[in-house]
Design goal:
745 residues, alpha/beta, TIM Barrel, 2 domains, 7-stranded parallel β-sheet, 6-stranded parallel β-sheet, 25 helices, 22 strands, 41% helix, 12% strand, binds glutamine, binds zinc ion
Amino acid sequence: MTSNFSSTVAGLPRIGAKRELKFALEGYWDGSIEGRALAQTARQLVNTASDSVSGLDSVPFAGRSYYDAMLDTAAVLGVLPARFDEIADHENDGLPLWIDRYFAAARGTEKLPAQAMTKWFDTNYHYLVPELSADTRFVLNASSLLQDLHCQQVRGINARPVLVGPLTFLSLARTVDGSDPLDHLPTLFAVYERLLKSIDAEWVQLDEPALVADVAPEVLAQVRAGYGTLAARGGVFVNTYFGSGDQAVHTLAGIGLGAIGVDLVTHGVTELAAWKGEELLVAGIVDGRNIWRTDLCAALASLKRLAARGPIAVSTSCSLLHVPYSLDAENIDPEVREWLAFGSEKITEVKLLADALAGDIDAAAFDAASIAIASRRTSPRTKPTTQELPGRSRGSFDTRVALQEKALELPALPTTTIGSFPQTPSIRAARAQLRKGSITLEQYEAAMREEIDLVITKQEELGLDVLVHGEPERNDMVQYFSELLDGFLSTANGWVQSYGSRCVRPPVLFGNVSRPAPMTVKWFQYAQSLTQKHVKGMLTGPVTILAWSFVRDDQPLATTADQVALALRDEISDLIDAGAQIIQVDEPAIRELLPLRDVDKHAYLQWSVDAFRLATAGAPDDVQIHTHMCYSEFNEVISSVIALDADVTTIEAARSDMNVLSALKSSGFELGVGPGVWDIHSPRVPSAQEVSGLLDAALRSVSPRQLWVNPDCGLKTRGWPEVEAALKVLVSAAHQARAHLAASI
Ligand code: GLN
Ligand code: ZN
């Protein structure tokens, strides 16, 4: 018999509070540290993670993770893609024997492409997409995990191994032969049955966030049957997150599972009517994904209502992977600090709630939480704003086209780039020096102007038609704008793993957003002063700014997005006053925030499109508005892209064989469009034939009047040699296509 636990968290971050894993991984990859040292760091991080929750009575345990949890599960299931089989076992130095194949799958090798990587549900974390086929065989390989588990048990830790569950694993997999990954579901349940039996731990957690999305009824029936078999082991805890747990509970209740976990934050405390108290309900009441302090009194009241119906444990709504480690490492505005809870503060909240539920209330802590909640609610910085909003519409597209043609005098098939040029070591060095105080702001800005000189000169030499200033002053675009807008704060150490060794430090959008001063105008002005050609004003859109920040949860996202939009609208107006005739507002994240369930999509697309339009509709009809998006799965959002009403949209296309074109064609897209003809994600320089071929393909789907010629995305991660070579190819292909067009008229 397993005994119920009363407090836990859904999962813990793996990168280390000081990004220890990042530095160890990068050291190992560049050969500056040995495998033994990497293994040692990873082991220590598992210990530290366990110790950080030692006050709770069940400890999630993921083993040593060297890159990503989906990839870890793929390794345990023995389904790293077969092309890596040629890589031999690793020598026995403390790293798993499969580690070289694992890193090859994560990062690729010179000869072998990596597995695809994409965003984990609607978060900014990226996972490695399992590659399967109809004849994939699962070959269990859990020895490394079991060894690590044993180490924790020897340390006296009640460790609860966490794996990705069968449904989620297959739902997120792709096949190389067009078969349906879910065909493997019954087999995979049988594999998990053996796996769970081999794990000597009281509890095992299987994560099934896929159960909060839309799942076909016949698949749900298979899931219920599969978990019914697994349940016989005892101590099986199926956890769900990122949405309401109702469907999961409906599917999984009453089949003998030990525990079912639900997210009570994303859609609030839902009814969970199917839960009859037969299983432990692991109540994710502390937000695992955002950084706001929990209203302990309100949470306790909800928990008590649930506890009246059956056994419950207090937990976080999802893994703490998505939030920074601790506020201790921060020196931030004291008023706002009181409103926040990072990872370690959330662990304390879980403990306080579990104790209170057991009758042991820490009155001082509950009072402090109430005071902080009230201070946040009543602060002038969060006070609802009630200003009348200006319009969200511009003149008709035809009117705009006519006016812009006259104002801009661009050739057919104009060439341009997406905004950034290489972020060279010297740019990064200048930024680091400014931070350290070893150069003055004036010196830093002079260095940036020199970069702009270079970027403009190169673009002139290459013969591009519409120029950019190159964004040298931005390392991360959302961070850049958040530092210049009121209502945001940045953290010093609030690192969150994005993928592998890569971390980001999302800004905190805590209050009303406004723009104290112009943000980009001086850079634009400087760049424009250097050339007769048009330089694009370059901004980041409201949805992307929200998507890559921790956002306030005390008002609808739509309201916050509109506030950001108004600030951008003022910036656009200032750019126009400074002479900008073309302004680009990037929205790479519109698709990324798309809700998991179909029923929620419409409302989301409505407000996200509205915010973009609010930002851009102040531009007079002769000013050309561009937008840029970084993905090619266009079909789902094409009507929203049309509704954005940007004069020109540049999108990713080269990597996906231009399959965006069919969506453009079938939707009757009439606005300007630049499907990227150079895949900048690879260092390879495309050949002239390739680019011409892509342009010909584009011209079969859209009219010559609509078409722009540009790369897929910004160039900041590329080096100058390949940028120059590729842009040369791109410009000459455009010139050639232009000549053909002229000849055919
Ligand atoms: N203008 C940005 C750049 O070129 C766009 C980046 C993005 O789409 N992610 O870097
Ligand atoms: Zn992009």
